[in-house]
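Lab notebook page, bench 4
Experiment: in silico fold of construct C2
Operator: M.H.
Input chain length: 174 residues
Purpose: comparison with the prior construct
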Amino acid sequence: MLYEAQYDHAIIFVGCNDDHKPCFASKRSITGYERRNLSGSDKRYSFRLENSFSDVVHIFESPIDLMSFQTMQKMKNQEWNKDNYLAIDGASLIGNDISHSEIPVALEWFLMKHPHIKVLVLHLDNDRAGLETSEKIKYHLADRYEIQDCRPKHCKDINDVLARKVLSHQIITR
């Protein structure tokens, strides 16, 4: 599910279908700003970590945020893999009318494939696109799911929260 690119050492996040065939790949640079999906990627199969025993799914815009959240759970000595975790591959604006908007295809597909899910925990970015994607999800799904909005309050995204925690810990321990 995670690979290192040989040429530039970027991280490749892979999402597979039910037959474990790779159908989605997202490349993220560790030294620069490259962030893109590889050609032919099907967003329905975006990066995710599944636990069929849990009825909770944590939703993130990117795999980096998903993994940052799990890292923070480990740092707090909490179970970091007890639920389902889904990266929806970005966020989008509502447009003119929320009733004509759609939920992210990765989330729609995940929920269709996992009918036992009862709780959606949103960890989307603290920006306009993240807010509006959260609103679309609530608008379209609040009648079927418990939805918790856990967007970062004082940071751009979950990865920024982790980076600040690590930095403050380094300052304290020096």
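Observations: Residues 158-173 form the longest helix (16 residues). The beta strands are 2-4, 11-16, 22-28, 35-37, 48-49, 56-60, 84-87, 119-122, 146-149.
Next step: discuss at group meeting.
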